[in-house]
Amino acid sequence: MKRYVIERDLPGIGGMTGEELGGASVKSNEALAQIPGVQWEHSYVTGDKTFCIYLAEDEDAILKHAELSGFPANTITEVTTIIDPTTAG
Predict the structure, then answer these.
(1) For the chain, which terminus, N or C, has the lower number of CB atoms within 10 Å?
(2) What CA–CA distances, in Å, run from 25 to 9, 19, 69, 80, 87?
(3) Model pTM?
(4) Please, are residues 32 and 38 in contact by the beta-carbon 8 Å criterion?
(5) Which residues make beta-bridge pairs with 39?
(6) Dist. CA 31–CA 58, nearest whole Å
(7) Is the dihedral of CA 58, 63, 68, 71 positive or negative?
(8) pLDDT per position as a tens digit, 3-35
(9) Domains delineated in the chain
């Protein structure tokens, strides 16, 4: 599977409570259960956006999740390489 970063414009999400974010997670998981070949790893929440990390067979699976969950996929970017401090050797 390929790794993707999905940028979602969600005004005010950074001000949501833990309970509200939990509800969003439930909604996302319900949509994921209907789509083979896609897995949510985690999301970074900012003021008005989320940056979600997904594993998926292709971009179409990401778009299907957006359709079923109601969460927009404003930008979908395939990750080609991961680097971290250990990459320097």
Answers:
(1) C
(2) 16, 10, 10, 26, 33
(3) 0.91
(4) yes
(5) 55
(6) 16
(7) positive
(8) 999 999 999 999 999 999 999 999 999 999 999
(9) 2-82 (3.30.70.3090)
